[in-house]
Design goal:
By secondary structure, this protein is α+β, with helices and mostly antiparallel strands. It has a single domain, classed as Nuclear Transport Factor 2, Chain: A. Helix content is 24%, strand content 29%. It contains three helices and five strands, in the order αββααβββ. It has helices at 9-12, 42-54, 81-96; strands at 25-29, 34-39, 102-113, 116-125, 130-136. The chain has a three-stranded antiparallel beta sheet with strand order 3-4-5, with helices on one face. Strand 3 and strand 4 (116-125) form a beta hairpin. The longest helix is centred in the middle third of the chain and has 16 residues, at 81-96.
C-alpha cells in the first residue's frame, strides 16, 4: 500500500516498540587494563557503574557528553565534608542514571579518612535488582 496524503493518519503511522538492547559486553580487568571474555546481566551493570564513575566526563572524545563522572574535580582538593556530601551523590547519580538499565541511585554513605574517600550507595536496575556499590577514591 502506497503512502498518500489522502490516507487517514492511522493508516500511515506504524507504531514500533523499542528493541531491548542486550547487556552483553567485554569483561574489563581494571587492575591491568586487559580485556577478556564476555559478561552480561548484573556483572555487566556492575562493570558499567565502576567504569562510568572512574572515567572523567568531557575528557575523552570517544565518549559522548553523558558518559563519565565529574568526581575527579572534587577529589584531591581541600573541600569541606558538607560540600562532598552534597556534590558526590549528584555527580554519581548524573553519571549513572542516563543508562536505561538503571532506575535509581540512592542511600549514599560518604566517609573521609585522611586522603582516602569511601563512597557506598545502592543502585536499582530495570531488571528489579538492587546492587550495593562501594568505591574508594
Amino acid at each position: 500500500m502506497a503512502l498518500s496524503p489522502l490516507q487517514r493518519v492511522e493508516e500511515r503511522v506504524i507504531q514500533a516498540a523499542p528493541a531491548v538492547q542486550p547487556t552483553l559486553t567485554y569483561a574489563l580487568d581494571f587492575g591491568n587494563g586487559s580485556i577478556g571474555g564476555l559478561i552480561e546481566g548484573e556483572e555487566a551493570i556492575r562493570q558499567f557503574i565502576r567504569k562510568a564513575i572512574v572515567t572523567a566526563r568531557f575528557r575523552f572524545p570517544i565518549y559522548d557528553d553523558e558518559y563519565g563522572c565529574e568526581l575527579e574535580d572534587l577529589i584531591g582538593q581541600d573541600v569541606p565534608i558538607a560540600l562532598l556530601n552534597a556534590e558526590i551523590p549528584r555527580v554519581i547519580t548524573e553519571a549513572l542514571i542516563y543508562d536505561d538499565r538503571i532506575d535509581a541511585v540512592y542511600n549514599f554513605d560518604i566517609q573521609r579518612d585522611g586522603d582516602k574517600l569511601t563512597v557506598s550507595f545502592f543502585v536499582d536496575t530495570a531488571d528489579g535488582l538492587t546492587i550495593e556499590t562501594e568505591e574508594v577514591v
